[in-house]
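Quick start: what a row looks like.
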Amino acid sequence: MAADFLKSHGIDVQNEMSTIQFSSGSLAQDVGNTESGEVRFSRQKVNQILNVKLPGGDADKTWDITIEDDTIASIDPHRPESLISSLDPSILDGHNAFLCPSLCHPHIHLDKCFLLSDPKYADLPIQKGDFAEALSLTSEAKSRFSPDDLLRRGRWLVEESIAAGVTCMRAFVEVDATVRFKCLDAGMTLKTQYRDACEIQICAFAQNPLFSSDSAVEGRRLMEEAVERKGVDVVGSTPYVEADEDQMRENVDWIIDTAMRYGKHLDLHLDYHLDASKEPMVSYVIEALHKRDWTHKARNKQIVLGHCTRLTLFTTKQWSDLRHRIQDLPISLVGLPNSDLFMMGKPAKGEEGGQRVRGTLQIPQMIQTHHMKGTVGVNNVGNAFTPQGNCDPLTLASMCVGVYQAGTKRDAEVLYECVSTRAKAAIGCGEQFALQTEVGDRADAVLIQVNGKMGGRRRRTLQEIIYDPPKERTVLYRGHLVRQEI
């Protein structure tokens, strides 16, 4: 081999390529503002990716990918000689890794992240671990939010997400009489700073009541001002925090009308309970959307319904009826297992809780049996709603194998789609569900290294990646290698 010949003359091709491709020298374009001392990302244009596996393909076959104008231009069988034909830094050796579509957060709270990790909020520990306490602790924390700490914690989330392979996220930032536009301003700053590494959709989000509180009128006014801002992509609310069912409906009507008036995507957090005696609000939402002819008048804007744990009590017939009622509405349901497992089904005080019912949307079954649109999301990270977990969607997908008892090859594919292609489609950042990389696709990808070091265990299939996600990953966004600089 030519590589062996060059090595015998003191030239290690693989080492030279790695040094060029992953160095932080002048070839790399810095991403983000470094004035505040945050971690930087660098970008390197990639024209070819050689020697990679593709999901769904032969486990022993590798491919060479050509990228032009930030899209996949060709996919050809790998030629070993191509690895030593050039030291061009725009040619990336995949080292037999899996080249998969990049990851996506369809539902993540940017402003409330890592409150349990920040010394500023050390006096707000979890004592009970229930929803009421989480609301109370978060409300107290919000009263102390400042631009510096919102940006600091937000950067932790964005940077850890990008390092995991996330190139698209829907980030919720709260707007209300307490924080006013502090969270929104921080979100917009992060959206701009990381625009060359990740697409951050900003959702102006009403966590507080819009109709049943003393500050409701001001809250609606602030939300209107927020939605008018350039760069706000989505409008959302939580109808279940209202005092009664009539005001929940008012919340739904107002937020739908606001989304349609300003041409925004819609995101509603609904039915976060397991009370079979309560009618799910999702039925009213679907009725209200049809009444306003969302599909034809909302200019291709997507609708995401989050939480919806009440729907886990549905029978097969109720699921079929729900699918029939949705018809052509562009609705995706997002399951949030991390939060649901922590919050749902807590036993009453004084009970041992021998049976703890968990309510989290059965997303794989919903997709495969009922042919509905669905995805899963991280939701919260490091706060009283969800103290456990991290920013890695693949770790979430792996946990879902056990949560959903989803261990087949097709299950693994669906779970990957749910943190990647289906998640992107749900929030309007893509259209396809399939994992197959095709010519014409935008070059947003994550290279997942599957070869064990020092002859260790090797993952040969996507199924094994979902079972036990490797940590070593290389991220491409719009045809550019994105790398964190320490």
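That is the whole record. The CA atoms of residues 43 and 369 lie 42 Å apart. The chain is about 35% helix and 20% strand.
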